[in-house]
Specification:
The structure is a homodimer.
Chain A lengths: L22 H14 L8 E2 L1 H8 L3 H13 L3 E4 L3 E4 L4 H17 L1 H7 L2 H19 L3 H17 L4 H21 L2 H4 L6 H9 L3 H17 L12 H16 L1
Antiparallel strand pairs in A: 1-3, 2-3
Chain A binds a DNA duplex (30 and 30 nucleotides) through helix 3.
Chain lengths: ~250, ~250
DNA sequence: ATAAGTTTAATTGTATCCAAAACACCTCTA
DNA sequence: TAGAGGTGTTTTGGATACAATTAAACTTAT
């Protein structure tokens, strides 16, 4: 697995609020990364026994981690049927990007007012690493850093609650991308990200908000044009399609 | 406990995403209500045994509920020290209201564009019940309905994700109010809520956003002027104060 | 051979059990 | 008398055991 030296993303606070004593924190991060970086495809079942063996702990700990991921909407749990990697519906995917527009645009005034040179340098560094990853074709790292950039940008506002919300939205965006988008189109193209740093550095609130709105709409557009159910509503529809084919053939 | 016929508030989806099989869902709601309506003061310890006996289940189920409430930031859990009702710091309280301004103002355009007469009638009904509760001095119901109004308003946007976020923020606002505010000032005064319905019905996006921003700043102002730590940082400070008193006295 | 019904296996939900940590009380000492 | 140290109790963290539910395999009858 990619050894990640700087966890810019990953669930808000690492001193996690529940009784995570380090071990299940590790398990959580492993699963989180596996899901968000699309090592586990949406819909993949996550049996408690398997995970328990994998990490050498009892199901108890696994269930705790699974519950956390469920709360973050990265896994779905149905009664007596266990957990699986979440498959955002088209509607959910839209909601996620809509919510991102609300939060990321709405936080821009705070960000601009609190943007220090040091903070902007941190952003620039992320962009540098993002373009580097992009040039060497490491799309996984590229997507990761793209998300990390958005989180870090809002992080400048200094509002932990908002940052947590956005972190969750960015993770879920990755899931939506994995479910509907083509991998290469997914990461924000040509490091547009540099542009917004300039705009923010110039103190142009209105411009930054417009940039962000357009940027997020661009990303969404490359992703959700699949329009209809991913693999669900299968049987009936498939059978009907088959029926039509056969009538055509004869 | 108040028999509540219409659960407008309460954690996003009632068909909860985790394995809640009805029984622990009930436990969750009871605890949720007890915390949000301030039957349990912030800081109150929540021992697992006690809760288990109270609800006639094993600690296992209690821990699940407690974890959920922890994720929603309504309880704090410290390693090996158990759970207690969360005490938002002043900084957190500010962040909560700041986040509410971002989300509730940012969602206004969506709300206005999707506002149907039926939806507005639903809002009016909530206001009616809120003023009724206020007039009969039922401040608990009044606060509840005030929060429910804000959630229902954003709910018109039809974005479940945003609604979930706001639901959490409103619950945490109640905790902040319980921690810092005086009860009667807490509920939004004189049913201002009616005003925004009119503005929205008129299609005035800009006006509605300004109203919401001012409204939330008003609510925040009546609450967080305590400025400094609630009861924390006790020992040292208290001892120092006592020391000063004694030097004055002699 | 297919479809329904029944039995078997696998997986989750819940309770109980044990170990470790925190807390309270009590004693002993300076 | 105040403080340090130690013992016992309470409470939490985690694993295991058992019950309940679902999914799968197999049988049987049409």
């Amino acid at each position: 697995m990619g050894k990640r030296t700087s966890p810019e993303l990953e669930s808000g606070r690492n001193d996690n609020g529940l009784g995570g004593n380090g071990r299940d924190e590790t398990i959580y991060r492993n699963l989180f990364t596996a899901i968000v970086e699309n090592h586990l495809a949406p819909g993949t079942k996550l049996p408690e026994d398997t995970l328990a063996e994998t990490y050498g702990v009892s199901r108890t700990s696994i269930r705790k981690v699974l519950q956390r991921l469920t709360h973050e909407r990265l896994v779905d749990v149905r009664l007596n049927r266990g957990a699986s990697v979440a498959q955002p519906s088209v509607g959910e995917a839209r909601d996620i990007f809509s919510a991102r527009r609300v939060i990321e645009c709405g936080a821009i005034p705070l960000v601009v007012s609190k943007a220090t040179p040091a903070a902007l340098d941190g952003l620039r560094d992320l962009v540098r690493r993002e373009t580097a990853a992009q040039e060497r074709g490491d799309w996984r790292e590229s997507i990761y850093l793209s998300g990390a950039f958005h989180v870090a940008l809002i992080g400048i506002a200094g509002n932990e609650t908002l940052t947590d919300f956005l972190t969750q939205l960015v993770s879920r965006s990755s899931l939506a991308i994995a479910t509907y988008g083509s991998p290469q189109t997914a990461s924000c193209r040509h490091s547009e990200h540099d542009d917004v740093i300039t705009i923010i550095a110039g103190g142009d609130v209105e411009g930054a908000m417009q940039w962000m709105d357009r940027h997020l709409r661009d990303v969404e557009r490359t992703v959700v044009f699949a329009e209809e159910e991913p693999a669900a509503a299968d049987l009936k529809k498939i059978l009907e399609e088959v029926a039509q084919r056969r009538t055509k053939l004869r």
